[in-house]
Hints:
By secondary structure, the protein is an alpha/beta fold. It contains 15 helices and ten strands. It has one domain: Alpha-Beta Barrel (TIM Barrel), CATH 3.20.20. It has helices at residues 5-13, 20-29, 32-46, 89-101, 119-130, 141-151, 155-165, 180-186, 193-205, 222-239, 265-278, 289-292, 294-300, 317-320, 329-338, and strands at residues 51-55, 57-61, 106-110, 135-138, 169-170, 209-216, 242-249, 284-285, 307-310, 342-345. Mean pLDDT is 89; it is low at 254-258 and 315-325. The strands form three sheets. A four-stranded parallel β-sheet has the order 5-6-7-8. The termini are far apart.
Amino acid sequence: MAPTVEDICAAVVAGERLSVAGALILARDADFYHLGFAANAVRMKKHPESMVTYVIDRNINYTDICVSACKFCAFFHGPEEEGGYVLSNDDLGKKIKETKALGGTQILLQGGLHPDLSLSFYEDMLRFIKSHDIHIHGFSPPEVCHFAEISGLGIAEVITRLRKAGLDSIPGGGAEILNDRVRHETAPRKCGADEWLAVMREAHNQGMRTTATMMFGHVETWDERLEHLDRLRGLQDETGGFTAFIPWPFQPANTALATVKTATAHEYLRVLAISRMFLDNFDNLQASWVTQGPKIAQMALFFGANDFGSTMIEENVVAAAGVGFRLSEKEIRTLVGDAGFTPKQRLMDYSLKVEG
């Protein structure tokens, strides 16, 4: 006889690993109460101190010129289009100084797959940013694969060179759904699922920490969502290099997939809860206030999330899809406190920032 939702939830809370088959049962049959209760129980076992962390950083998109032309992106300009940009060092310097003045500890550095910039351009940019003495969390796996292609080097050599130039850690962008049917339909020019994982494996093997993401709610099925989670869990078993997982719903406005119905807050919280139960080897799950707004982000703290993410001093990609939530550090601390938790500023590796 197939296990019930109650059986599966009880087993996961007791410490048993959730199988793909069990997660599918939860996705299909579990009610909101059971998922929230179980995910919160797992979260509190991992983080009994009742603390919620956040980071102060800025998302700098160094260029919007991109050859990938992903159907889900409202941000990019094709190389042949007018209006694209590449940030100058002067622009970068101003943004970094503003970030540090607001207590920022890192730069989230990502951009389009520009066809004409060399690997040495990115190395020079890293050296310039590093001269401002700030952590660089940059270049998602599709960017690293693009750098390898334009330079004729292997992934390992590219990462080695980027590290020497100042790269500290790698964000989990460009994962979307780690299933090649989905990737071929939505972003056929971007690296495949195996390549995304290979970049992260190599980064971990070189001693770098990275994050992982999942953008859901477009053309994927629940089976494909769970394939994504299973592949992340498998790599984490192998390397232990991921610091956190961040799921967020696709925002369709102004994209080639504009007719897709946006995932509801209810669906977001269900995905978050199942992710918390499935990813037993991930310490941290981040709430997505950037796409869901502050109140749903507060609810996310009871559906598995223990981190409130970034203040996002600057954010351009989601904003291009028509979503404009903004929160200051003070607002984040108030929201976390009002939810019954103690807010603490962290660094990329989830160590706490020394206060004072």
